[in-house]
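Q: Joint fold for the lines below.
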Amino acid sequence: MSDYTVVGQKVPRVDAIEKVTGTAQYGADVHPAGMLYGKIVRSKHAHANILSIDTSEAEKLPGVRAIVTQADVQSGRRVFATDKVLYLGEPLAAVAATDADIAEEAAELVHIEYEVLPVVQDVMEAIKPSAPRLHGDATKDGPNRRGIAAQIRKLSRDKETDHGDELRALEAALEKYPDEVYYNISAESHSEAGDVEQGFADSDIVVEDTYVIPRVHQTYMEPHVSVASADSSGKVTVWASTQGPFAIRSGIAGTLGIPLTQVNVIGTTMGGGFGGRFGVIITHVPAVLLSQKTGRPVRVQMTREEEFLDGRPAPGCVIKLKTGATNDGRILARQALAFWDSGSVSGASIGSTIRVRGVYKIPNLKVDAYGVHTNKSGTAAYRAPGAPQAIFAGESQLDEIARRIGMDTVEFRLKNMREEGDEVPAGGSEPRVGYKETLQAVADAAGWWGREKDENQGWGVAVGDWTNGCGPGGVYVSVHEDGSVRIFHGSMDITGTDTSISQIIAEILTVPYENVTITRGDTDSAPYSTGSGGSVVTFTMGNTAKLAAEDTHRRILELASERLNANVDNLELREGAVHIITADPPKSISLGELAAYSLSTTGGPIVGKGSFARQPSTPALAAQIAKVEVDPGTGRTRVLKLVASQDVGFAINPMTVEGQIEGGTVQGYAWAMMEEMQYNEAGNVNPGFVDYRVPTSADLPTVESVIVEVPAPNGPYGAKGVGEPPITPTLATMANAVCDAVGIRVNELPIKPEKVVNALRSNGH
Amino acid sequence: MAKLPVTLTVNGDEYDLLIEPRKTLLAVLRDTLGLTGTKEGCSTGDCGACTVIVDGRAVTSCMVLGVTAAGKAITTVEGLAVDGELHPVQQAFIDTGGYQCGFCTPGFIVASKALLDENPNRTEEEFRHALGGNICRCTGYTKILEAVMQAAEEVQATA
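A: Joint structure:
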């Protein structure tokens, strides 16, 4: 295959020893001398006016050192609720004490007087005029009213012609859609290509369904934590468990009104993130406020229960989807109307509704999406934010159409998949991506074409697409007099990225992987780096590492040219030494000797640097097939086989790439079958692992992963981001498999046994 | 709260401690002894991140009061490598890529060691069920099971 010796290899990770011996330092393992323990005081109601906050009794508890409320936030930026709470668990104050148990006791002694208000948790209720208003009375128009209102605005602007009759007709038309005045809207997003009405009219078959996807928690195993230390000069140091130390630095500086250079963020080893570890005020800002007030370091660590109440999970949503196709299997039109549950603040990934277009040629597409306020915490990213939800709807409905027109569901997808140069509905033109190769690979690996099944068994397939993000990054490389290489950068390792960066640099400098050490600096010392989210790291930092290594390579040859008195064009770096290719007898100098020469002539080691801002990314596809068996008596679904393929561009470390595919697929499985944050008037009612079940090893068989490599033009060695795509198709893969097994199409996730049993019963079983 | 005098034996070392009766073994290991390899993932005994071995049995240390562990032999992840040589389970987690973020890894490694000590001759399916008390959110368990099977072979070969 390739001539590479380090990239493309399954080398052990750079952090292997510390991870298996327990010495890796996570956020809660940081314990500076004199540290106090912080605890956040939280609302006990999902919606209430705050009449008073009385901290006097808590302050008297021995061991309590400080209590902070919004009054302590001099910048005025909102950290704690003051007059109103919008969800159960919303922060109202924070306590610091000499012991964790004392802090918890003190938090209970802060007396809050509430005036309880009506609660709304269901997005379809929240948009109605009868719903309690979370943020005032502003409304937004639904898709039909929006279209009519736009025409009215246009005609009204034309002062030269009298449009009186038309305007009156349009006003009357508006009246036909009284239900389309939506309340509690946090955001909206709309896109359109072609003419969907015409597309549906031309279709032989039109299928319309409503899909309901629950709110789920990223459930990283390490709860949010930060340790803050503010000194008397105003300098703030924060040990933060975060995906983005630089984002946390600017977040803290902005929230508290202090200069960036007075905030140093030290990223601690991250116990999982999945997009949910970028929050600034969840623990970091309260820890800083408590440290500023006490003059001592303070650790604020969330419990698992607090994670469920006040983490920032993935939004649930309701998607009404309509698709039209011809009997010979061409998709002609698709229309979506989505309501995303953004909780108490805006921020749900409503723009991802566009992903209902999938990777198919759909000439006519219309997407209208709304974010809706409810009495829940806000949301954040979770592994391809918004895509699993939209793709669940899209791929379930495609499956249904294929079944109804009697076409193999893989053939149907292959027939409609976009190819290089095809128009992307509402989004430019398609680059070269291994869509068909990836689907074919999973079908071949799973034995799709010769598949067999017994009674109550079924096969399901689905695909999901995602494109990695990109952002600024910097890497420094230095070569030392023993020939060893040090890499210095500021991006958080997200399950193996430091290893990939090290592999790239070892490859280019032709040194053994073991001779490379990678060090992450804090925000005071390291070059700026974008956050480790959006599958950016291998793409961004991989490119940056390549540039830094190439710069170092260039510098090595310059030094060697000087030292060996030879023309650079006649020099070659291989196996850790520079050789004069024209010399006979052979002549060379090792990297160590060159580094020593550099030290004595330039005053330092051989240094190279790379920085990277942005390059266009290329989409990736994940394709999955599941074989399941459903017990019609209990409704329980057992997975017999789960195969996942993915176009990764190029696998810099196939071991860690497989790990991403396997892990993402199981998270998708869990969203389909098990997980759901449940809410009622009281708030979240399942804030723990007994009632919010995540999969264990006993729930699943081995996930078989298949790597497909269609290089990305701008990726390092052709690599694409691999972390996010594998979660995107699994929700639909599972639903399609259950449908194939027992003929029940569950459109409301998760597919819990009782739903299957009830559906079978109502079908006469 | 009044503290009680307790002698704990952790990884072969004896510690004379004064601890509050309400402190869990997990809190004592982490906060008092500074043995932070054992992780706190839920504090309700449901995730297994805090698994340690007490008198040969894997237990979730967040569910044990520190004072009740007096006189018992406690092994944490810090106690598995001998003279710098990794335990076969630790090596297997490296070789197979059985960890990602690593937060659940000490719990998995300690739980696996207890299972291997008890009986390494199990099928993959049996290990899958036996490890059902530990949650990993990153790996999807495929490579964890590969690691445990590799370690089981290694342990049986050298037994």
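Q: Anything notable?
A: Chain B has a mean pLDDT of 97. Strands of chain B lie at 4-10, 13-19, 51-54, 57-60, 73-75.
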